[in-house]
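Re: the request from the purification team.
They wanted to know what the chain is likely to look like in 3D before they choose a buffer screen. I agreed to run a prediction and write the result into the notebook, where they can find it.
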Amino acid sequence: MAVVHREYARRWEGNTTFYEEQGLYQSLAEHLAGAGQIERIVDVGCGRGQGIAALRALANGSHFFVGIDENPACLTAAAESLDAAAPFHRLKEKRLGPREYELEPIPGRLPLSAPIVLVHADILRPDPEFEDWIVSLAPFDAVTMWFTGAHGARQFHALMNELDIRSDSVHRMAIDLAALDLAGGVLRPGGLLQIVQRGYTNHLPTLTAETKDEMEALSTHGPFSLVNLKAFPYREPTTGPRIGVGGPGTGGFAFSAMFRRQ
């Protein structure tokens, strides 16, 4: 698993560097900042930390950011880039068979308070210690989730069978619902949930309408209303180590959906 995690983090760096050069992280951070206060934020699937860095650059005065990721190699890279404390690796792999594994939380490995804290956690699995900890830090101004993805070994996680997750689209739906549930428990009234997902099309109006319908349906699962949806054009890298997404001949867009907690 460690090799898989490191390889994903290495390849993901190719994408994130390319996004950063295009100003995509800055644009997404500005979209959130334009909708409300961004001093206290939970970033779900924080990856290598570029999203937190962009949000930190816009925060006025003091800030408190919590970054969550299932991949410890991404968290280590985030700690280095953000000059934050290295996260505890608190999910222990347990082999169930040649091609199946489980992740079990190691008690007592949640971080101490700091302006930026990084947490090894998987929001799809029950984790009472983490859940109690994150709720104790509430309320937050915003919860963000930008560009969710999964490493190749994720399909062999026993949790995927338990949740009947058989495809990338179902995995993304499950992550969206888990983020919505987390946000409902930690956001202040009027707080924001920002979900950013990729889309590829040669006809933006159609994809925008489809994405809006999908996000409005998602909002019915919690105390939220969709208040804004914006498409940011961007490009994926075509050379070097990278995570392959999108397709040839299509325009790439980052759809930033903004939900407000009621």
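For the purification team: The chain is about 40% helix and 30% strand.
Please add any questions underneath this entry.
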